[in-house]
């Protein structure tokens, strides 16, 4: 009896938390479906309409939201790909070899993650203006390395460190070069890790707000900043912001769903004797 | 031909290899025997170029291997951990060397070789399986196959039979040396099992704390062990080592047991007398006679291990006798043992810093 009661209470607590956690999202969904004239009504009125979405995706109101969306995709994917190209070999090297200053280098890389972006944003702004990187894709992909690269290097480093080096040694003795050993043996074995960390890095890059806020104005602006433009003008259009925000949740969500099976798969499956 | 000279390798403060000297002759099957942590695997990895020695030289077929990458050394190694590629099938694991730039074979030729090796190792039926689905013994055979499948200057085998079940191990032990590739190729075989070493090795090297203590044929290792540790390592039941002192006429072991062994050592030297259990006869025969009483008997199958108290009782020796001879023995029965003086081994007494060395005897 007592046990049952505890179970009930537990379920109730979970439901409560569920409502609490989902409330902002539900609120946003409702908000995004409201017609403009009901936004500020003090009584509850709700006649759902897709007008908000039509406005946002139709680029009316003079705000090129679709372009922001494409910008976000280009910049985030670009940042993750560049980080993978640079970061995977770096992670592998730092997992396998100790060299002079290697730990300092790794720590410096990590420090990019815990130093607030705002501390470097002013000098970056000046640099970007001077170098002509302001409001460009290249500039955004580059600056987002501060977000994605440390993440990918540090997480992949631990994946590589978990692989026994004897697998690559066996490949060397089979007649493969170190590079071939990396691509044929080490890399395929950390594929689940690459998938997981890419997703994570993508989400971080996608959600980044400060860099596009300061370092872009129009051409390379992303959804995080773009969604706010609906709040300007004579009266804030919260329904449009909500619709824009919800649309911009779609890519990370889809990505997460597609690579879900990699996220849960175990790392090592019988490489070595147990 | 493999020659290691003056190899030193330290991991932090622990010295893995300490001035190691080793020579494996062309085409020879050489067994390296030692307890875990003695430096066996490090020795193999040093030869393969996977570990860089702090000092010393590795020579393969007369060529100094300094600065030569592992893939250019032309040696094949079987890892104790198998090191199979877990994302590939058993077949692809075996095919890996034959697809590499250095040992590439046309696909159908490769298939033939793999088929032949798989047949030999009894894994033909498993080739399509991912290695994750194989048992440890099966994985070990795939790992061995990956070594044997391609020509090599030398095979380096790190405990390649340790995870097979007893019956299969015995069978593979017998077959391993009959494999053509193994007969033609210099093979360095690492094991901690003295039976395996005696059964397989053309010559045997005993390694301890990063040094080779003794190398020799199985007869040399058996009859002229370098010290008490080597003597203890070979033979089950273990060799009997009786403490005693050198006298004018022989050795008086503790408890007043006189043994007719002439040592090249001054009277009064403390020694250990080694007696192999199978060299002690229970019933008669020619030789020196010892009397004692039965302490305990233990049936080992067709034979019986008998432990006998000698002299005033504080010395005990084990011997192995046929079951028929020992069947009626009970505790405290008096027995007469016979040993041949030429079978006695003599060692210095063990010291804390090192085991006692063998002393030459005159018979």
Beta fraction of the residues of chain A?
Answer: under 5%
Distance between the termini of chain B: 38 Å
User: For the report, how would you describe the main beta sheet of chain B?
Assistant: 6 strands, mixed
Q: Tally the structural domains of chain B.
A: 2
CATH topology of the largest domain in chain B: Rossmann fold
Described by strand count, sense and barrel closure, the largest sheet of chain A is: none
Strand order of the largest sheet of chain B: 6-7-8-3-9-10
CATH class of the largest domain in chain B: Alpha Beta
Low-confidence stretches of chain B: none
The helix/strand order of chain A is: HHHHHHHHHHHHH
Give the overall form of chain A: globular
CATH superfamily of the largest domain in chain B: P-loop containing nucleotide triphosphate hydrolases
Overall outline of chain B: elongated
Describe this structure in words.
The complex is a heterodimer of chains A (274) and B (363). Chain A is an all-alpha fold and 274 residues long. Chain A has two domains: 2-52, no CATH class; 63-237 and 246-264, MetI-like fold (Orthogonal Bundle). In chain A, 72% of the residues lie in helices and 0% in strands. Chain A is built from 13 helices and no strands. Chain A has helices at residues 2-32, 51-57, 65-96, 102-114, 118-131, 137-162, 166-173, 178-189, 191-207, 210-215, 223-226, 238-258, 260-264. In chain A, helix 1 (2-32) crosses helix 12 (238-258), helix 3 runs parallel beside helix 6 (137-162) and helix 3 packs across helix 9. Chain A is globular, with a radius of gyration of 24 Å. Residues 266-274 of chain A have low confidence and may be disordered. Chain B has 363 residues and is of the alpha+beta class. Chain B is elongated. In chain B, the strands form five sheets. A six-stranded mixed beta sheet of chain B has the order 6-7-8-3-9-10, sandwiched between helices. Chain B has helices at 40-48, 70-73, 90-99, 107-121, 136-148, 166-176, 180-184, 194-200, 218-223, 228-233, 323-326; strands spanning 2-11, 14-24, 29-33, 55-60, 63-64, 75-78, 154-158, 186-191, 203-208, 211-216, 240-246, 251-253, 257-259, 262-263, 270-275, 280-281, 288-299, 303-310, 315-322, 334-339, 345-348, 358-359, 361-362. Chain B has two domains: 2-232, P-loop containing nucleotide triphosphate hydrolases (Rossmann fold, 3-Layer(aba) Sandwich), CATH 3.40.50; 238-362, OB fold (Dihydrolipoamide Acetyltransferase, E2P) (Beta Barrel). In chain B, helix 4 packs across helix 5 (136-148). Chain B is built from eleven helices and 23 strands. In chain B, 25% of the residues lie in helices and 35% in strands. The longest helix of chain B is centred in the first third of the chain and has 15 residues, at 107-121. Chain A binds chain B through residues 164, 166-167, 169-177, 180, 185, 188-189, 268-274, and chain B through 45, 48-50, 69-71, 75-77, 79, 81-87, 96-97, 100-103, 130-134, 136, 139, 146, 150, 163.
